[in-house]
Amino acid sequence: MTESKKTMLSAVAPSNRLTVGNYIGALRNWVKLQDQYDCWFFSVNLHAITVRQDPTELLEQTYRAVACYIAAGIDPKKATLFIQSQVPQHAELAWVLNCFTYMGELSRMTQYKDKSLKQGQNIPAGLFNYPVLMAADILLYQTALVPVGEDQKQHVEITRDIALRMNNLYGKDLFRIPEAYIPPVGARIMSLQNPLAKMSKSDPDPNGAVYLTDTNDQILKKVKRAVTDSGTEITYEETKPGINNLLTIQAAITGKTIPEIVNSYIGKQYGHLKVDTANLLVETLGPIRDKTDELMKDRSYLLQVLEDGAERARERAGQTLKEVYRRIGLV
Ligand code: TYM
Predict the structure, then answer these.
(1) Which of 129, 148, 188, 210 most suits a substitution to test ligand 1, by most atoms within 8 Å of the C-beta?
(2) Could you give the strand order of the β-sheet that contains 7-12, starting from the edge strand earlier in sequence?
(3) Three-class secondary structure of residue 74 per DSSP
(4) Which of 14, 204, 249, 292 is positioned for an S-S bond with 65, CB 3.0–4.6 A?
(5) What atom in ligand 1 is closest to the CA of residue 151?
(6) How far apart are CA 2 and CA 37, in angstroms?
(7) What are residue 50's phi and psi, to 5 degrees?
(8) Helical ranges in 100-255 per DSSP H
(9) 171 CA distance to ligand 1 centroid (A)?
(10) Is 279 exposed, middle or buried (0-12, 13-18, 19+ CB in 10 A)?
(11) Which residues line ligand 1 (CB under 6 A)?
C-alpha cells in the first residue's frame, strides 16, 4: 500500500531532551505530512555521540525521543520507527560517502563552525563528518522529502551535492535527490532568554528552552519570564525579536497568521501575550509529555515497535547499500 507513496524521512539527535523548537520545527510537520508519504523516523544516537554523552542518559534519551514521536501523533502502524545504531548500514554508507565528500565543503557547515568553537583544542573528527552520516541516513532510503528546521537546511543541501556527485560517477539512478521541507512558520524558534539565538537542546541556561519533559509549572514560569524588549505595543518587527518569537510560537501551533494574532492584541500588554503563549504551550505539550511518560513506563510496547522498525530499516537500507557496493566495485 505504501509502496506507491514517496518516502519522507527525518530524525532527532537524542543529545538531550527535546525542545519545543524540535516540536515546532520538525515533529509537528512530520505528523501533518505523515499520511501523504511512506514515513521513516528515527533517533540518531550515532550523531549524538559527536559530543560527549553520559551513557545512561544517552540510552534513556534515545528511547524517549521515539516515545515523543508517538506521543506527538506519529502513527507507528504507518511510519517505520527505529534507532540509528540498530541499522549498521548507516555507518557503512557514511564511510563510503566520506570518500566522496570534500574537506572544504564540510568546513563551510555553519553548525560545525558553531559547535566546534565550544570544543576547545580537541574537536572530534565525528563532529566534522557529522553531515556525511546525515547524508547516509537520507540516501539509504531513497528519500524524497526531509522535513527539518532551518538549521538543518544546509545539511540537506550537502546531501544533495554528494548524491549528485555519486550519481554522475556511478549512474543517475543510484540515489534519489532529496528535497528539504522547511515550515513557512516556526522553522527557527529562538531561545526564551536570548531571542537572537536559536533555542537549543544544549542551551546551558535551562530557562532558554522549553523541554518536552517540562512540567506545566516550568512551562508557565519559563514563558512568563521570556526576555522581551522594553516596549509595550505588540507588533511583529525586527526590533522585537522576543515578541516575534512568542507570536511565531502561537502562529505555528494555532495555524493563525501573524497579522491575525497581532490584531487580537491591540490595546493589550506584553504580559497578556506571555500568559496566552504559556497556556497554549501547556495545553499542547502537557498531553505529549504525559503520553511519552506512559510509553517510557510500558517499555515492552516501545521495544517491539523499534525491533520491527529496525528490521524493516535494515531491509530497505541493505538494498541501497548493496547497489552502492556493486557499482563502486566493492566485494
Ligand atoms: P536536531 O536533533 O538538532 O534537531 C531535530 C529537528 O529539530 C529542528 N530544530 C528546530 N526547529 C526550529 N527551531 C529550533 N530552535 C530548532 N532546533 C532544532 C531541526 O532543524 C531538526 O529538524 N542532524 C539532525 C538530525 C538528523 C537528521 C537526519 C534529520 C540526523 N540525520 C536525517 C533529518 C534527516 C539534528 O541534529 O537535528
Answers:
(1) 148
(2) 80-83, 38-43, 7-12, 145-147, 179-181
(3) coil
(4) 14
(5) 20
(6) 8
(7) -70, -15
(8) 103-107, 110-117, 125-139, 153-170, 216-224, 241-254
(9) 30
(10) middle
(11) 9-13, 21-22, 24-26, 44, 47, 134, 137-138, 146, 148-149, 151-152, 155, 187-189, 198-199
Q: Which three cell numbers stand for residue 162?
A: 554528494
Distance CA 295, CA 259 (A): 38
* Residues tagged active-site: 115, 198, 201
The cell numbers describing 183, all together, are 515550515
Best residue among 46, 129, 137, 151 to mutate for probing ligand 1's pocket (most ligand atoms within 8 Å of CB) is: 151
Which residue owns the Cα nearest ligand 1 atom 33? Answer: 10
Domains and CATH numbers, the chain: 7-182+299-328 (3.40.50.620), 216-293 (1.10.240.10)
Report d(CA 179, CA 81) in Å as an integer: 21
Tens of pLDDT, residue by residue over 190-199, are: 999 999 999 9
Cα–Cα distance between 257 and 247 in angstroms, integer? 9
Q: All 3 cell numbers of residue 176?
A: 534519489
In the prediction, which pLDDT does 235 show?
96
Residue type for 69, please? Y
- Maximum distance among all Cα pairs of the chain, rounded to whole angstroms: 72
Cβ atoms 180, 26 nearer than 8 A = no
Give the pLDDT of residue 2: 46
**Which residues neighbour 1 within 8 Å (Cβ) at sequence distance 6 or greater?**
none
How far apart are alpha carbons 61 and 43 in whole angstroms? 9
Please tell me the distance from the alpha carbon of residue 101 to that of residue 186, in angstroms, as a whole number: 31
Gap from CA of 330 to ligand 1 centroid (Å): 32
Three cell numbers at 112? 560545525
Query: Ligand 1: distance of its center to the CA of 26 in Å?
Result: 7
Kindly give the interhelix angle for 110-117 and 153-170, rounded to the nearest 10 degrees: 120
CA of 45 to the centre of ligand 1 (A): 13
Bridge partners (DSSP) of residue 9 are: 40
